[in-house]
Design goal:
It is built from 3 helices and 7 strands, in the order βαββαββββα. The chain is of the alpha+beta class. The protein has one domain. The relative contact order is 0.25. This is DUF6912 family protein.
Length: 115
């Protein structure tokens, strides 16, 4: 059984980690509690809220999704080959934007275009 981990980040941090070939697990990692669509959506939106908190002002929420064999711990590095998708706002969000706005879905090969 695989575990789906949702890693909140920013475009700037994603660019650094993409160049290094891995993403870093932080304390804000969110794990889907069940293997169903509702649980995964809840985990995604919780991670999106954490991503918004990382922004110094207007910007894009970014959530990296990885499939792992066990729950990750802060400080772990996850190789990009374990990343299955990136969810991000398609444009910068103004201050006070609706926190429930959906994120766009990007395949891993689209990360350079997102950056």
């Amino acid at each position: 059984m695989t575990i789906r981990a949702y890693l909140p980040t920013t475009l700037a941090l994603l660019a650094e980690q993409h160049a290094e070939g891995h993403v870093v697990v932080t304390d804000d990692v969110v794990i889907a509690t069940e293997d169903d669509e509702e649980s995964e959506y809840d985990a995604l939106m919780t991670a999106a809220d954490a991503s918004a908190a990382l922004l110094p002002g207007p910007g894009r929420r970014v959530v990296v999704v990885a499939e792992l064999d066990k729950a990750p711990e802060p400080g772990w590095t996850i190789p990009l080959k374990r990343v299955v998708a990136v969810h991000a706002d398609t444009e910068d969000r103004p201050a006070g934007a609706d926190p429930d706005d959906d994120l766009g879905w990007f395949a891993t090969q689209e990360i350079p275009f997102l950056l």
